[in-house]
Write a structure and sequence with these properties.
Layout (H helix, E strand, L loop, with lengths): L3 H7 L5 E6 L5 E7 L2 H8 L8 H9 L2 E6 L3 H15 L6 E2 L7 E4 L8 E4 L8 E3 L5 H14 L20 H4 L13 H15 L3 H17 L3 H19 L11 E9 L2 E10 L2 E11 L6 H15 L6 E4 L6 H12 L4 E3 L5 H42 L7 E10 L2 E11 L2 E2 L5 E4 L8 H26 L14 E4 L3 H13 L6 E6 L5 E6 L2 E3 L6 H35 L6 H11 L2 H6 L2 H5 L6 H13 L1
Parallel strand pairs: 8-11, 11-12, 13-17, 17-18
Antiparallel strand pairs: 1-2, 1-3, 4-10, 5-6, 5-7, 8-9, 9-10, 13-14, 14-15, 14-16, 18-19, 19-20
Length: 621
Protein backbone atom coordinates (compact mmCIF):
# COMPACT_ATOMS: atom_id res chain seq x y z
CA UNK A 1 0.00 0.00 0.00
CA UNK A 2 1.37 3.42 -0.96
CA UNK A 3 1.66 5.69 2.11
CA UNK A 4 2.05 9.28 0.89
CA UNK A 5 3.31 10.63 4.22
CA UNK A 6 5.99 7.94 4.45
CA UNK A 7 7.04 8.55 0.85
CA UNK A 8 7.33 12.30 1.50
CA UNK A 9 9.99 11.60 4.14
CA UNK A 10 12.08 9.69 1.57
CA UNK A 11 12.13 12.53 -0.98
CA UNK A 12 15.65 13.86 -1.67
CA UNK A 13 16.52 17.53 -1.39
CA UNK A 14 17.74 17.61 -4.97
CA UNK A 15 16.47 19.02 -8.29
CA UNK A 16 14.21 16.78 -10.33
CA UNK A 17 10.78 16.06 -11.76
CA UNK A 18 7.74 14.65 -9.93
CA UNK A 19 4.75 12.81 -11.42
CA UNK A 20 1.39 12.82 -9.60
CA UNK A 21 -0.92 9.83 -10.20
CA UNK A 22 -4.60 9.07 -9.59
CA UNK A 23 -6.22 5.85 -8.33
CA UNK A 24 -5.88 4.26 -11.78
CA UNK A 25 -2.15 5.11 -11.88
CA UNK A 26 -2.71 7.63 -14.66
CA UNK A 27 -0.29 10.56 -14.58
CA UNK A 28 -2.39 13.67 -13.87
CA UNK A 29 0.36 16.25 -13.30
CA UNK A 30 4.06 16.68 -14.06
CA UNK A 31 6.14 19.33 -12.30
CA UNK A 32 9.79 20.24 -11.70
CA UNK A 33 11.53 21.44 -8.57
CA UNK A 34 14.91 22.70 -7.46
CA UNK A 35 14.24 20.84 -4.19
CA UNK A 36 11.93 17.84 -4.61
CA UNK A 37 11.19 17.33 -0.90
CA UNK A 38 10.14 20.93 -0.25
CA UNK A 39 8.10 21.27 -3.46
CA UNK A 40 6.11 18.03 -3.25
CA UNK A 41 5.39 18.50 0.48
CA UNK A 42 3.67 21.82 -0.29
CA UNK A 43 0.85 20.00 -2.09
CA UNK A 44 -0.11 18.05 1.04
CA UNK A 45 0.08 20.92 3.53
CA UNK A 46 -2.59 23.55 4.23
CA UNK A 47 -4.63 24.23 1.10
CA UNK A 48 -5.31 27.90 1.95
CA UNK A 49 -2.59 29.14 -0.37
CA UNK A 50 -3.43 26.73 -3.17
CA UNK A 51 -5.41 27.79 -6.24
CA UNK A 52 -8.80 26.06 -6.77
CA UNK A 53 -7.24 24.06 -9.59
CA UNK A 54 -4.46 22.72 -7.34
CA UNK A 55 -6.95 21.97 -4.55
CA UNK A 56 -9.02 19.90 -6.98
CA UNK A 57 -5.92 18.08 -8.25
CA UNK A 58 -4.69 17.18 -4.75
CA UNK A 59 -7.98 15.37 -4.05
CA UNK A 60 -7.16 12.96 -6.90
CA UNK A 61 -3.51 12.29 -6.00
CA UNK A 62 -3.16 8.72 -4.72
CA UNK A 63 0.59 8.31 -5.27
CA UNK A 64 3.57 9.99 -6.89
CA UNK A 65 7.02 9.18 -8.19
CA UNK A 66 10.05 11.32 -8.90
CA UNK A 67 13.16 11.46 -11.08
CA UNK A 68 16.31 13.13 -9.74
CA UNK A 69 18.37 15.24 -12.18
CA UNK A 70 21.83 16.81 -11.96
CA UNK A 71 20.59 20.37 -12.46
CA UNK A 72 17.48 22.50 -12.66
CA UNK A 73 17.99 22.94 -16.42
CA UNK A 74 17.95 19.16 -16.86
CA UNK A 75 14.77 19.02 -14.78
CA UNK A 76 13.20 21.67 -17.02
CA UNK A 77 14.00 19.70 -20.19
CA UNK A 78 12.68 16.46 -18.68
CA UNK A 79 9.49 18.19 -17.50
CA UNK A 80 8.82 19.49 -21.04
CA UNK A 81 9.32 16.05 -22.54
CA UNK A 82 7.10 14.29 -20.01
CA UNK A 83 4.26 16.81 -20.40
CA UNK A 84 4.37 16.33 -24.16
CA UNK A 85 4.45 12.54 -23.77
CA UNK A 86 1.71 12.06 -21.17
CA UNK A 87 -0.41 15.23 -21.65
CA UNK A 88 -1.50 15.21 -17.95
CA UNK A 89 -4.96 16.45 -17.08
CA UNK A 90 -3.88 19.24 -14.68
CA UNK A 91 -1.00 20.66 -16.71
CA UNK A 92 -1.58 23.50 -19.14
CA UNK A 93 -1.40 21.80 -22.53
CA UNK A 94 -0.33 23.11 -25.90
CA UNK A 95 -3.05 21.61 -28.08
CA UNK A 96 -2.04 19.46 -31.07
CA UNK A 97 1.52 20.86 -31.15
CA UNK A 98 2.92 17.58 -32.44
CA UNK A 99 0.63 17.67 -35.48
CA UNK A 100 1.88 20.95 -36.95
CA UNK A 101 3.89 20.49 -40.15
CA UNK A 102 7.42 21.70 -40.81
CA UNK A 103 9.52 22.23 -43.93
CA UNK A 104 12.50 19.89 -43.82
CA UNK A 105 15.75 20.30 -45.78
CA UNK A 106 18.01 17.25 -45.72
CA UNK A 107 21.26 19.25 -45.57
CA UNK A 108 23.07 16.12 -44.36
CA UNK A 109 22.80 14.70 -47.92
CA UNK A 110 25.05 15.49 -50.89
CA UNK A 111 21.99 16.62 -52.91
CA UNK A 112 19.40 17.74 -50.31
CA UNK A 113 15.62 17.53 -50.69
CA UNK A 114 12.97 19.96 -49.45
CA UNK A 115 9.61 18.62 -48.28
CA UNK A 116 6.87 18.80 -45.66
CA UNK A 117 7.08 16.64 -42.53
CA UNK A 118 5.27 16.32 -39.21
CA UNK A 119 8.14 14.58 -37.43
CA UNK A 120 11.05 16.36 -35.79
CA UNK A 121 14.03 14.02 -35.80
CA UNK A 122 17.58 14.43 -34.55
CA UNK A 123 19.01 13.70 -38.00
CA UNK A 124 21.11 16.84 -38.65
CA UNK A 125 18.53 18.11 -41.17
CA UNK A 126 17.20 21.71 -41.10
CA UNK A 127 13.57 22.28 -40.07
CA UNK A 128 11.47 25.42 -40.56
CA UNK A 129 8.18 25.90 -38.78
CA UNK A 130 5.85 24.95 -37.27
CA UNK A 131 3.19 26.04 -39.78
CA UNK A 132 -0.36 26.09 -38.39
CA UNK A 133 -1.64 27.44 -41.71
CA UNK A 134 -1.55 24.54 -44.17
CA UNK A 135 -2.26 26.85 -47.11
CA UNK A 136 0.74 29.05 -46.27
CA UNK A 137 2.96 25.97 -46.11
CA UNK A 138 1.67 24.71 -49.46
CA UNK A 139 2.21 28.10 -51.15
CA UNK A 140 5.75 28.31 -49.75
CA UNK A 141 6.66 24.85 -51.04
CA UNK A 142 5.14 25.60 -54.46
CA UNK A 143 7.18 28.80 -54.70
CA UNK A 144 10.36 26.90 -53.81
CA UNK A 145 9.57 24.19 -56.36
CA UNK A 146 8.84 26.76 -59.05
CA UNK A 147 11.97 28.85 -58.63
CA UNK A 148 14.57 26.35 -57.43
CA UNK A 149 14.56 23.16 -59.55
CA UNK A 150 15.69 20.73 -56.86
CA UNK A 151 15.04 17.00 -56.85
CA UNK A 152 11.98 15.35 -55.31
CA UNK A 153 12.96 11.71 -55.89
CA UNK A 154 14.16 9.21 -53.29
CA UNK A 155 17.28 8.08 -55.14
CA UNK A 156 20.43 7.75 -53.04
CA UNK A 157 22.92 10.25 -54.44
CA UNK A 158 25.76 10.25 -55.37
CA UNK A 159 25.61 6.43 -55.28
CA UNK A 160 22.89 6.21 -57.97
CA UNK A 161 24.23 8.91 -60.32
CA UNK A 162 24.10 7.69 -63.93
CA UNK A 163 22.17 4.49 -63.19
CA UNK A 164 18.91 5.75 -64.73
CA UNK A 165 17.81 8.37 -67.22
CA UNK A 166 16.43 11.69 -65.91
CA UNK A 167 12.75 11.56 -65.01
CA UNK A 168 9.87 13.73 -66.24
CA UNK A 169 10.67 16.48 -63.69
CA UNK A 170 13.90 17.22 -65.57
CA UNK A 171 12.19 17.37 -68.95
CA UNK A 172 9.59 19.90 -67.73
CA UNK A 173 12.27 22.06 -66.10
CA UNK A 174 11.40 21.22 -62.48
CA UNK A 175 14.69 19.46 -61.66
CA UNK A 176 18.36 19.87 -62.64
CA UNK A 177 18.79 16.06 -62.76
CA UNK A 178 21.62 15.50 -60.27
CA UNK A 179 20.81 11.78 -60.72
CA UNK A 180 22.31 12.02 -64.21
CA UNK A 181 25.24 14.20 -63.18
CA UNK A 182 23.84 17.25 -65.00
CA UNK A 183 24.53 19.59 -62.08
CA UNK A 184 27.53 19.65 -59.75
CA UNK A 185 27.16 19.18 -56.01
CA UNK A 186 28.54 22.71 -55.48
CA UNK A 187 25.98 24.37 -57.79
CA UNK A 188 23.15 22.30 -56.32
CA UNK A 189 24.05 23.36 -52.78
CA UNK A 190 24.04 27.01 -53.87
CA UNK A 191 20.33 26.58 -54.62
CA UNK A 192 19.80 24.98 -51.20
CA UNK A 193 21.60 27.90 -49.51
CA UNK A 194 19.26 30.33 -51.30
CA UNK A 195 16.22 28.35 -50.15
CA UNK A 196 17.45 28.39 -46.54
CA UNK A 197 17.98 32.17 -46.71
CA UNK A 198 14.52 32.56 -48.21
CA UNK A 199 12.89 30.50 -45.41
CA UNK A 200 14.86 32.49 -42.83
CA UNK A 201 13.27 35.67 -44.22
CA UNK A 202 16.56 37.02 -45.57
CA UNK A 203 15.08 38.09 -48.89
CA UNK A 204 17.71 40.75 -49.62
CA UNK A 205 20.53 38.18 -49.70
CA UNK A 206 18.56 35.93 -52.05
CA UNK A 207 17.57 38.81 -54.34
CA UNK A 208 21.15 40.13 -54.49
CA UNK A 209 22.53 36.70 -55.47
CA UNK A 210 19.83 36.21 -58.11
CA UNK A 211 20.49 39.69 -59.54
CA UNK A 212 24.18 38.81 -59.90
CA UNK A 213 23.23 35.58 -61.69
CA UNK A 214 20.84 37.51 -63.96
CA UNK A 215 23.57 40.01 -64.83
CA UNK A 216 25.99 37.19 -65.75
CA UNK A 217 23.34 35.44 -67.86
CA UNK A 218 22.58 38.71 -69.66
CA UNK A 219 26.27 39.36 -70.41
CA UNK A 220 26.55 35.83 -71.80
CA UNK A 221 23.51 36.57 -74.02
CA UNK A 222 21.56 33.82 -72.27
CA UNK A 223 18.38 35.88 -72.29
CA UNK A 224 16.03 32.96 -71.54
CA UNK A 225 17.82 32.22 -68.26
CA UNK A 226 18.02 35.95 -67.45
CA UNK A 227 14.24 36.25 -67.94
CA UNK A 228 13.61 33.27 -65.62
CA UNK A 229 15.83 34.85 -62.95
CA UNK A 230 14.04 38.19 -63.38
CA UNK A 231 10.63 36.54 -62.79
CA UNK A 232 12.02 34.75 -59.75
CA UNK A 233 13.32 38.04 -58.29
CA UNK A 234 9.93 39.74 -58.86
CA UNK A 235 8.07 36.91 -57.07
CA UNK A 236 10.34 37.11 -54.03
CA UNK A 237 10.06 40.92 -53.96
CA UNK A 238 6.27 40.65 -53.94
CA UNK A 239 6.48 38.43 -50.85
CA UNK A 240 9.00 40.76 -49.22
CA UNK A 241 6.74 43.79 -49.77
CA UNK A 242 4.01 42.09 -47.72
CA UNK A 243 6.23 42.23 -44.64
CA UNK A 244 6.46 45.26 -42.37
CA UNK A 245 9.81 46.75 -41.37
CA UNK A 246 9.48 46.99 -37.61
CA UNK A 247 12.97 46.93 -36.14
CA UNK A 248 15.96 49.00 -37.15
CA UNK A 249 18.33 46.64 -35.27
CA UNK A 250 17.64 43.89 -37.86
CA UNK A 251 17.57 41.26 -35.08
CA UNK A 252 15.73 37.93 -35.06
CA UNK A 253 12.88 38.05 -32.56
CA UNK A 254 9.72 36.20 -31.51
CA UNK A 255 6.94 38.41 -30.13
CA UNK A 256 4.45 36.49 -27.97
CA UNK A 257 1.12 37.51 -26.42
CA UNK A 258 -2.12 35.75 -25.54
CA UNK A 259 -5.82 36.23 -24.91
CA UNK A 260 -7.83 34.07 -22.49
CA UNK A 261 -11.46 33.01 -22.39
CA UNK A 262 -12.79 30.50 -19.85
CA UNK A 263 -10.69 27.30 -19.98
CA UNK A 264 -8.76 28.11 -23.17
CA UNK A 265 -6.16 30.62 -24.23
CA UNK A 266 -4.98 31.60 -27.70
CA UNK A 267 -1.31 32.53 -28.01
CA UNK A 268 -0.20 34.72 -30.94
CA UNK A 269 3.44 34.49 -32.04
CA UNK A 270 4.99 36.98 -34.48
CA UNK A 271 8.18 35.77 -36.15
CA UNK A 272 10.54 38.68 -36.83
CA UNK A 273 13.57 37.85 -38.97
CA UNK A 274 16.09 40.46 -40.03
CA UNK A 275 13.83 43.23 -38.70
CA UNK A 276 10.76 42.09 -40.67
CA UNK A 277 7.64 40.21 -39.66
CA UNK A 278 7.94 37.12 -41.85
CA UNK A 279 4.99 35.24 -40.37
CA UNK A 280 2.65 34.73 -37.48
CA UNK A 281 1.01 31.69 -35.97
CA UNK A 282 -1.55 31.09 -33.26
CA UNK A 283 -1.62 28.22 -30.80
CA UNK A 284 -4.37 27.00 -28.48
CA UNK A 285 -3.83 26.10 -24.84
CA UNK A 286 -6.39 24.28 -22.74
CA UNK A 287 -6.54 23.66 -19.00
CA UNK A 288 -5.95 27.35 -18.22
CA UNK A 289 -9.02 27.88 -16.04
CA UNK A 290 -8.11 29.64 -12.75
CA UNK A 291 -4.49 29.94 -13.96
CA UNK A 292 -2.43 33.11 -13.62
CA UNK A 293 -1.09 34.94 -16.72
CA UNK A 294 2.46 34.20 -15.53
CA UNK A 295 1.76 30.44 -15.39
CA UNK A 296 0.12 30.50 -18.83
CA UNK A 297 3.07 32.28 -20.43
CA UNK A 298 5.64 30.10 -18.63
CA UNK A 299 3.92 26.88 -19.73
CA UNK A 300 3.69 28.03 -23.33
CA UNK A 301 7.33 29.10 -23.54
CA UNK A 302 8.56 25.76 -22.20
CA UNK A 303 6.33 23.61 -24.43
CA UNK A 304 6.72 25.69 -27.60
CA UNK A 305 10.50 25.99 -27.54
CA UNK A 306 10.89 22.33 -26.57
CA UNK A 307 9.44 21.46 -29.98
CA UNK A 308 10.42 24.29 -32.33
CA UNK A 309 13.67 24.22 -34.28
CA UNK A 310 14.71 27.87 -34.62
CA UNK A 311 15.31 29.95 -31.49
CA UNK A 312 15.77 33.71 -32.06
CA UNK A 313 18.24 35.90 -30.23
CA UNK A 314 15.43 37.78 -28.45
CA UNK A 315 12.02 36.68 -27.19
CA UNK A 316 9.62 39.50 -26.35
CA UNK A 317 6.74 38.63 -24.02
CA UNK A 318 3.48 40.13 -22.87
CA UNK A 319 3.85 38.72 -19.32
CA UNK A 320 6.66 37.93 -16.92
CA UNK A 321 7.54 34.25 -16.58
CA UNK A 322 8.74 32.08 -13.71
CA UNK A 323 12.24 30.63 -13.72
CA UNK A 324 13.47 33.31 -16.13
CA UNK A 325 17.18 32.64 -15.68
CA UNK A 326 16.79 28.86 -15.95
CA UNK A 327 14.72 29.11 -19.15
CA UNK A 328 17.15 31.64 -20.68
CA UNK A 329 20.04 29.30 -19.88
CA UNK A 330 18.21 26.34 -21.43
CA UNK A 331 17.38 28.23 -24.64
CA UNK A 332 20.92 29.62 -24.87
CA UNK A 333 22.31 26.09 -24.65
CA UNK A 334 19.96 24.95 -27.41
CA UNK A 335 20.81 27.87 -29.69
CA UNK A 336 24.53 27.93 -28.95
CA UNK A 337 24.40 31.70 -28.31
CA UNK A 338 22.96 33.93 -25.61
CA UNK A 339 19.15 34.25 -25.76
CA UNK A 340 17.38 37.18 -24.08
CA UNK A 341 13.79 37.14 -22.79
CA UNK A 342 12.25 40.58 -22.26
CA UNK A 343 8.92 42.06 -21.13
CA UNK A 344 8.93 45.64 -22.48
CA UNK A 345 6.91 48.34 -20.71
CA UNK A 346 7.28 51.10 -23.35
CA UNK A 347 8.78 51.84 -26.74
CA UNK A 348 8.66 49.97 -30.08
CA UNK A 349 8.87 46.52 -28.54
CA UNK A 350 5.92 47.28 -26.27
CA UNK A 351 3.89 48.28 -29.35
CA UNK A 352 4.77 44.96 -30.97
CA UNK A 353 3.44 43.11 -27.93
CA UNK A 354 0.23 45.19 -28.04
CA UNK A 355 -0.21 44.29 -31.71
CA UNK A 356 0.24 40.58 -30.93
CA UNK A 357 -2.19 40.81 -28.00
CA UNK A 358 -4.89 42.54 -30.07
CA UNK A 359 -4.54 39.93 -32.79
CA UNK A 360 -4.77 37.16 -30.20
CA UNK A 361 -8.04 38.68 -28.91
CA UNK A 362 -9.43 39.06 -32.43
CA UNK A 363 -8.49 35.51 -33.39
CA UNK A 364 -9.90 34.06 -30.17
CA UNK A 365 -13.19 35.93 -30.73
CA UNK A 366 -13.21 34.83 -34.37
CA UNK A 367 -12.75 31.18 -33.45
CA UNK A 368 -14.58 31.38 -30.14
CA UNK A 369 -17.98 30.29 -31.42
CA UNK A 370 -16.45 27.56 -33.56
CA UNK A 371 -14.44 26.31 -30.58
CA UNK A 372 -17.63 26.23 -28.51
CA UNK A 373 -19.39 24.20 -31.19
CA UNK A 374 -16.47 21.77 -31.36
CA UNK A 375 -16.46 21.53 -27.58
CA UNK A 376 -20.16 20.71 -27.57
CA UNK A 377 -19.70 18.08 -30.32
CA UNK A 378 -16.94 16.36 -28.35
CA UNK A 379 -16.68 16.90 -24.60
CA UNK A 380 -20.27 18.15 -24.30
CA UNK A 381 -21.50 15.05 -26.13
CA UNK A 382 -19.54 12.79 -23.77
CA UNK A 383 -21.13 14.54 -20.78
CA UNK A 384 -24.59 13.92 -22.26
CA UNK A 385 -23.79 10.20 -22.56
CA UNK A 386 -22.45 10.15 -19.00
CA UNK A 387 -25.62 11.81 -17.68
CA UNK A 388 -27.85 9.44 -19.65
CA UNK A 389 -26.09 6.40 -18.17
CA UNK A 390 -26.00 7.99 -14.71
CA UNK A 391 -22.42 7.23 -13.71
CA UNK A 392 -20.36 9.55 -11.49
CA UNK A 393 -16.87 8.93 -12.87
CA UNK A 394 -15.89 11.39 -15.59
CA UNK A 395 -15.74 9.67 -18.98
CA UNK A 396 -12.60 10.51 -20.93
CA UNK A 397 -11.92 7.32 -22.88
CA UNK A 398 -14.58 5.23 -24.65
CA UNK A 399 -13.79 1.90 -26.34
CA UNK A 400 -16.26 0.43 -28.84
CA UNK A 401 -16.29 -3.14 -30.18
CA UNK A 402 -17.88 -4.81 -33.22
CA UNK A 403 -17.80 -8.28 -34.80
CA UNK A 404 -17.86 -8.90 -38.55
CA UNK A 405 -18.13 -12.17 -40.54
CA UNK A 406 -19.80 -13.68 -43.59
CA UNK A 407 -21.63 -16.86 -42.59
CA UNK A 408 -18.98 -17.42 -39.95
CA UNK A 409 -16.06 -17.17 -42.40
CA UNK A 410 -13.04 -15.05 -41.38
CA UNK A 411 -14.69 -13.65 -38.23
CA UNK A 412 -12.94 -10.53 -36.96
CA UNK A 413 -13.38 -8.06 -34.14
CA UNK A 414 -12.63 -4.34 -34.05
CA UNK A 415 -11.82 -1.96 -31.20
CA UNK A 416 -12.05 1.78 -31.82
CA UNK A 417 -11.15 4.41 -29.24
CA UNK A 418 -12.58 7.89 -28.62
CA UNK A 419 -10.91 10.23 -26.13
CA UNK A 420 -12.57 13.52 -25.25
CA UNK A 421 -15.21 12.76 -27.88
CA UNK A 422 -12.63 12.46 -30.70
CA UNK A 423 -11.26 9.30 -32.35
CA UNK A 424 -7.78 8.21 -31.27
CA UNK A 425 -6.79 6.07 -34.23
CA UNK A 426 -3.36 5.17 -32.90
CA UNK A 427 -5.13 3.07 -30.22
CA UNK A 428 -7.44 1.17 -32.62
CA UNK A 429 -6.99 -2.62 -32.53
CA UNK A 430 -8.02 -5.49 -34.86
CA UNK A 431 -8.71 -9.05 -33.68
CA UNK A 432 -8.79 -12.15 -35.87
CA UNK A 433 -11.13 -14.60 -34.11
CA UNK A 434 -9.21 -17.76 -33.21
CA UNK A 435 -11.31 -19.88 -30.84
CA UNK A 436 -14.79 -19.67 -32.41
CA UNK A 437 -16.02 -21.79 -35.33
CA UNK A 438 -19.04 -20.61 -37.30
CA UNK A 439 -21.18 -17.48 -36.93
CA UNK A 440 -21.28 -16.96 -33.15
CA UNK A 441 -21.17 -13.24 -32.36
CA UNK A 442 -21.58 -13.79 -28.60
CA UNK A 443 -18.58 -16.12 -28.30
CA UNK A 444 -16.56 -13.94 -30.69
CA UNK A 445 -17.26 -10.86 -28.56
CA UNK A 446 -16.27 -12.79 -25.44
CA UNK A 447 -12.94 -13.74 -27.06
CA UNK A 448 -12.18 -10.16 -28.13
CA UNK A 449 -12.94 -8.67 -24.69
CA UNK A 450 -10.96 -11.42 -22.95
CA UNK A 451 -7.91 -10.90 -25.15
CA UNK A 452 -7.98 -7.11 -24.84
CA UNK A 453 -8.30 -6.95 -21.03
CA UNK A 454 -6.13 -9.98 -20.27
CA UNK A 455 -3.37 -8.24 -22.23
CA UNK A 456 -3.99 -5.15 -20.09
CA UNK A 457 -3.63 -7.00 -16.78
CA UNK A 458 -0.54 -8.92 -17.90
CA UNK A 459 1.11 -5.83 -19.28
CA UNK A 460 0.31 -3.83 -16.14
CA UNK A 461 1.99 -6.44 -13.96
CA UNK A 462 5.05 -6.41 -16.24
CA UNK A 463 5.29 -2.62 -16.11
CA UNK A 464 5.11 -2.59 -12.32
CA UNK A 465 7.93 -5.14 -12.12
CA UNK A 466 10.09 -2.89 -14.33
CA UNK A 467 9.14 0.26 -12.42
CA UNK A 468 7.42 1.80 -15.47
CA UNK A 469 4.17 3.79 -15.57
CA UNK A 470 0.75 2.73 -16.81
CA UNK A 471 0.98 5.18 -19.72
CA UNK A 472 4.00 3.36 -21.16
CA UNK A 473 1.98 0.25 -22.08
CA UNK A 474 -0.08 -0.42 -25.22
CA UNK A 475 -3.10 -1.95 -23.48
CA UNK A 476 -2.90 -0.63 -19.91
CA UNK A 477 -4.90 2.55 -20.52
CA UNK A 478 -8.43 1.44 -19.58
CA UNK A 479 -11.68 3.10 -20.70
CA UNK A 480 -14.32 4.57 -18.43
CA UNK A 481 -17.04 3.21 -20.76
CA UNK A 482 -17.32 0.22 -23.14
CA UNK A 483 -19.77 0.33 -26.05
CA UNK A 484 -20.77 -2.87 -27.86
CA UNK A 485 -22.34 -2.94 -31.32
CA UNK A 486 -25.13 -5.36 -30.43
CA UNK A 487 -27.82 -6.28 -27.95
CA UNK A 488 -28.14 -8.12 -24.63
CA UNK A 489 -26.23 -11.22 -25.76
CA UNK A 490 -23.09 -9.32 -26.72
CA UNK A 491 -23.34 -7.10 -23.61
CA UNK A 492 -23.62 -10.08 -21.26
CA UNK A 493 -20.69 -11.79 -23.01
CA UNK A 494 -18.51 -8.73 -22.35
CA UNK A 495 -19.71 -8.33 -18.76
CA UNK A 496 -18.99 -12.00 -18.02
CA UNK A 497 -15.33 -11.58 -19.02
CA UNK A 498 -14.89 -8.34 -17.06
CA UNK A 499 -16.32 -9.95 -13.92
CA UNK A 500 -13.93 -12.91 -14.28
CA UNK A 501 -11.00 -10.49 -14.59
CA UNK A 502 -12.29 -8.39 -11.65
CA UNK A 503 -12.53 -5.24 -13.80
CA UNK A 504 -15.37 -2.79 -13.18
CA UNK A 505 -16.27 -0.81 -16.31
CA UNK A 506 -19.84 0.05 -17.46
CA UNK A 507 -20.89 -1.77 -20.66
CA UNK A 508 -23.58 -0.44 -23.01
CA UNK A 509 -24.98 -1.85 -26.22
CA UNK A 510 -25.47 0.38 -29.26
CA UNK A 511 -28.84 -0.71 -30.66
CA UNK A 512 -30.23 -0.05 -34.13
CA UNK A 513 -33.71 0.34 -35.56
CA UNK A 514 -35.33 -1.69 -38.37
CA UNK A 515 -33.52 0.42 -40.98
CA UNK A 516 -30.14 -0.36 -39.36
CA UNK A 517 -29.76 3.17 -37.99
CA UNK A 518 -28.56 3.99 -34.47
CA UNK A 519 -31.48 4.13 -32.06
CA UNK A 520 -29.88 4.49 -28.62
CA UNK A 521 -28.00 2.75 -25.83
CA UNK A 522 -28.86 -0.42 -23.92
CA UNK A 523 -27.68 -0.27 -20.29
CA UNK A 524 -28.68 -2.68 -17.50
CA UNK A 525 -31.08 -4.31 -19.99
CA UNK A 526 -32.96 -1.02 -20.48
CA UNK A 527 -32.87 1.27 -23.49
CA UNK A 528 -31.80 4.80 -22.56
CA UNK A 529 -30.93 8.16 -24.22
CA UNK A 530 -29.41 10.57 -25.03
CA UNK A 531 -32.43 11.88 -26.91
CA UNK A 532 -32.54 11.74 -30.71
CA UNK A 533 -30.76 14.68 -32.37
CA UNK A 534 -28.63 15.69 -29.38
CA UNK A 535 -24.83 15.89 -29.62
CA UNK A 536 -24.57 12.84 -27.36
CA UNK A 537 -26.79 10.82 -29.71
CA UNK A 538 -24.74 11.98 -32.72
CA UNK A 539 -21.52 10.92 -31.00
CA UNK A 540 -22.91 7.42 -30.34
CA UNK A 541 -23.83 7.21 -34.04
CA UNK A 542 -20.30 8.26 -35.07
CA UNK A 543 -18.74 5.72 -32.71
CA UNK A 544 -21.01 2.90 -33.92
CA UNK A 545 -20.36 3.72 -37.59
CA UNK A 546 -16.59 3.89 -36.98
CA UNK A 547 -16.49 0.54 -35.14
CA UNK A 548 -18.50 -1.08 -37.95
CA UNK A 549 -16.35 0.51 -40.68
CA UNK A 550 -13.11 -0.61 -39.04
CA UNK A 551 -14.35 -4.20 -38.61
CA UNK A 552 -15.70 -4.43 -42.18
CA UNK A 553 -12.47 -3.01 -43.60
CA UNK A 554 -10.38 -5.66 -41.84
CA UNK A 555 -12.82 -8.43 -42.74
CA UNK A 556 -12.74 -7.53 -46.44
CA UNK A 557 -8.97 -7.44 -46.40
CA UNK A 558 -8.78 -10.96 -44.96
CA UNK A 559 -11.40 -12.29 -47.40
CA UNK A 560 -9.56 -10.75 -50.35
CA UNK A 561 -6.27 -12.26 -49.18
CA UNK A 562 -7.90 -15.66 -48.70
CA UNK A 563 -9.49 -15.48 -52.16
CA UNK A 564 -6.15 -14.67 -53.84
CA UNK A 565 -4.45 -17.51 -52.02
CA UNK A 566 -7.13 -20.06 -52.86
CA UNK A 567 -7.33 -19.20 -56.57
CA UNK A 568 -3.60 -19.11 -57.35
CA UNK A 569 -2.84 -22.11 -55.16
CA UNK A 570 -5.04 -24.23 -57.42
CA UNK A 571 -2.75 -23.72 -60.44
CA UNK A 572 -0.17 -26.55 -60.85
CA UNK A 573 3.40 -25.28 -60.83
CA UNK A 574 2.58 -21.95 -59.14
CA UNK A 575 4.20 -21.80 -55.72
CA UNK A 576 4.75 -18.92 -53.33
CA UNK A 577 7.66 -17.40 -55.35
CA UNK A 578 5.84 -17.46 -58.70
CA UNK A 579 2.61 -16.29 -57.06
CA UNK A 580 4.43 -13.26 -55.63
CA UNK A 581 6.06 -12.50 -59.00
CA UNK A 582 2.68 -12.65 -60.79
CA UNK A 583 0.94 -10.37 -58.29
CA UNK A 584 3.79 -7.85 -58.29
CA UNK A 585 3.74 -7.76 -62.11
CA UNK A 586 -0.03 -7.55 -62.69
CA UNK A 587 -1.14 -5.96 -59.40
CA UNK A 588 -4.26 -8.13 -58.99
CA UNK A 589 -5.74 -11.53 -59.87
CA UNK A 590 -8.29 -9.81 -62.13
CA UNK A 591 -5.58 -8.25 -64.31
CA UNK A 592 -3.75 -11.59 -64.45
CA UNK A 593 -6.98 -13.25 -65.56
CA UNK A 594 -7.36 -10.72 -68.41
CA UNK A 595 -3.73 -11.10 -69.57
CA UNK A 596 -2.68 -12.92 -72.75
CA UNK A 597 -0.20 -15.82 -72.80
CA UNK A 598 2.48 -13.48 -74.19
CA UNK A 599 1.95 -11.02 -71.36
CA UNK A 600 2.19 -13.80 -68.75
CA UNK A 601 5.40 -15.08 -70.36
CA UNK A 602 7.01 -11.67 -69.80
CA UNK A 603 6.88 -12.18 -66.01
CA UNK A 604 10.33 -13.00 -64.71
CA UNK A 605 10.60 -16.60 -63.45
CA UNK A 606 7.50 -17.88 -65.31
CA UNK A 607 8.43 -20.59 -67.93
CA UNK A 608 6.40 -20.92 -71.14
CA UNK A 609 4.63 -24.11 -70.04
CA UNK A 610 3.58 -22.55 -66.70
CA UNK A 611 2.34 -19.44 -68.53
CA UNK A 612 0.13 -21.66 -70.68
CA UNK A 613 -1.20 -23.48 -67.60
CA UNK A 614 -2.08 -20.17 -65.94
CA UNK A 615 -3.82 -18.87 -69.06
CA UNK A 616 -5.76 -22.14 -69.59
CA UNK A 617 -6.70 -22.28 -65.89
CA UNK A 618 -8.53 -18.97 -65.98
CA UNK A 619 -10.05 -19.28 -69.45
CA UNK A 620 -11.26 -22.86 -69.01
CA UNK A 621 -12.91 -21.80 -65.74
Amino acid sequence: MFDIQEELKKLPQKPGVYLMKDQFENIIYVGKAVNLRNRVRQYFQSSRNHSPKVQKMVLHIKEFEYIVTDSEVEALILECNLIKKYRPKYNIRLKDDKHYPYIKITVNEAYPKVFMTRKLLKDKAKYFGPYTDGLALKETLELIKKHWPIRTCNRVLPRDIGKERPCLQYHIGQCKAPCAGLISEEDYKKMIAEIISFLDGKYEDVIKELENQMQVASEELNFEKAAQLRDQILSIKRIAQKQNMINASMEDQDVIAFAKKEDEALVQVYFVRGGKVVGREHFLLDGVDETSPTDIMTSFIKQFYAGTTFIPKEIILQEEIDELEIIQSWLSDRKGHKVYIKVPKKGEKSKLVEMAEKNAELTLNQFGEEMKRKEQRTKGAVEEIQNAIGIEETIHRIEAYDISNTQGIESVGSMVVFEGGKPKRSDYRKFKIKSVLGPNDYASMEEVIRRRFTHAKEELEGLKEKGLTVDEGKFTKLPQLILIDGGKGQIHAAQKVLEELNISIPVCGMVKDDKHRTRGLLYNDEEIGPPLGTEGFKLITRIQDEAHRFAIEYHRKLRSKAQIQSVLDEIPGVGSVRKKALLEHFGSVQRLKEASIEEIRQVEGIPNNIAEQIFNFFHQR
